[in-house]
Specification:
Radius of gyration: 21 Å
Strand order of the largest sheet: 5-4-3-6-7-11-10
Number of helices: 7
Structural class: alpha/beta
Strand content: 15-25%
Length: about 260
């Protein structure tokens, strides 16, 4: 059973470990009281409303959240009935947040690993649903990642990402004539403060995200939403990829043998 804390103790605990990216309610106390990176204060509440409406039923399912950040979606999926939820987070700071809130909420059925996105593998098991929210444009090698996570996903993947901010893409889709897949490279050379480079490397269009999912094993793809953001640099999109359910073999029953006579 999780240790009980007063509201004052929780507020001090969250403030001492900020900045927080996700606002998560813990016994009536929000993890953050201010925006850290320009996001709206209640982030990711609006994104969850969009994602929740696209999810298949989670009751009894296994869910993987790659790049889980502070863990909001782990707890939300568990509350929707997922039997097991696994979070992957590379940042030590956000991993610590997710582990902390997981301990405080004590929902059970949630496991969190500090792991690079490229390191997801068979040891994690198979998942019915995989969430990839706000991640692939941070990766130098998004194809490599999608191939690896596809090998673990049996049914559905939801990808939310920054996309190329293009009226042309939206107009083509409105005419039901999807444009060509395209992805712009954003050069972010390493610096002394950021030796890994980044944090953003790619600006695909939604058609490119669909194409990458299809090539990597999700034959059915849908652009669920796309928003253009000022000042016309990046937009946001949610793409859903699904795999067909494996067919069950039907065994023909043999006719009953006739009695000899």
């Amino acid at each position: 059973m999780a240790q009980q804390h007063s509201r004052e103790e929780l507020r001090q605990l969250f403030d001492s470990t900020k900045p927080w990216h996700h606002l998560i309610d813990v016994d009536g106390v929000p993890t953050k009281t201010e925006s850290a990176w320009g996001e709206y204060l209640e982030h990711p509440e609006n994104l969850w409303e969009s994602v929740a409406g696209l999810l298949p039923g989670l009751k009894g399912r296994r869910v993987l959240d790659v790049g889980c950040n502070d863990g909001f979606f782990l707890f939300a999926c568990r509350r929707l009935g997922a039997a097991e939820v696994v979070g992957i987070e590379a940042s030590q700071h956000f991993y610590n947040h997710a582990v902390l809130v997981n301990r405080l909420l004590d929902l059970g059925g949630i496991t969190i690993h500090r792991m690079d996105a490229y390191d997801v593998g068979a040891e994690l098991g198979a998942f019915d649903v995989t969430l990839v929210l706000g991640l692939i444009y941070h990766l130098k090698n998004p194809f490599l990642f999608i191939e690896r996570v596809s090998a673990l996903t049996t049914s559905t993947i939801l990808v939310e990402t920054a996309v190329r901010n293009s009226n042309e893409d939206l107009e083509s889709r409105a005419r039901e004539t999807a444009g060509a897949p395209a992805m712009e490279f954003v050069e972010n050379p390493p610096t002394q403060l950021n030796p890994e480079g980044g944090p953003n490397w790619w600006a695909p269009n939604a058609e490119c995200v669909c194409a990458m999912l299809r090539v990597c094993g999700f034959p059915r793809t849908t652009v669920a939403s796309e928003t253009l953001l000022p000042p016309n640099e990046f937009g946001r999109a949610i793409v859903v990829g699904t795999k067909p359910r494996p067919r069950r073999l039907r065994l023909r029953s043999r006719p009953a043998a006739r009695p000899a006579g």
